[in-house]
# Entry
Amino acid sequence: MSEEIQSILNKEHLHLASIGKRSIAFFIDELLLSFLLIVAMYDSFASATNIEEMIALTNSFVFEYMLMKIAYQTFFVMQYGASLGKIAMKIRVVEIVTLDNPRLLSSLNRAIFRIISEIFFYMGFLWGMMEPNRQTWHDKTARTLVVDA
# Structure
């Protein structure tokens, strides 16, 4: 499969996005989503009087935060082929077969497996660093690649 993917990339003059670009895009998205969570839950966070309350409050919104991340990733990857972080880094997600933006189910699959990878200590991301096509777990399950835009 690796040689087949490389052949497709060469034929279409596409280049895989670097680990550095993908990491910075991830960081941008995480900052943005964290900021949005804090804004949305500002009243709750403002009422916390010490660090323990802040940590307990943050932990109580983990499920909502995961749902927000899934919705964000699904929408932007399906609609634009990239999250805001990826757009800033000039990289995009494409389906291997069509070389176009992932469809709804692919985007949703990718978003869910991205969360699963995070839950398992970011192992899926580490996998992508060692894989020749830089495919993380969520790329493999959704049959996508991240390429330079």
User: Anything to note?
Assistant: Strands lie at 91-95, 144-148. DSSP finds nine helices and two strands in the chain. Residues 46 and 54 are 9 Å apart (CA to CA). The chain has one domain: 2-148.
